[in-house]
């Protein structure tokens, strides 16, 4: 399995979001005023839960989730998961892979 770096993975995800948005797809983390967008990067667990709920139906959910599970030190919501959820799932995945 080829592991790509954080910068390359982030750029790829952003390109996907740009492409989808350019074709008219609604990207929840890019929709709405700036003030509502801050929940995506908030450190407040309640804000993160609110943002994660908005991810439902996002066409980039799977790629975003993979990014968040690979780069668990990234703050904010990725792939419909809060920071705590991503770290828990990533830890479980590492344990399963080691077994």
Automatic annotation (TrEMBL):
Origin: domain of life: Bacteria
Database matches in PROSITE patterns: 4FE4S_WBL (PS51674)
InterPro entries assigned to the protein according to its UniProt record, in alphabetical order: 4FE4S_WBL
Pfam families: Whib (PF02467)
4Fe-4S Wbl-type domain span: 28-88
Protein name: 4Fe-4S Wbl-type domain-containing protein
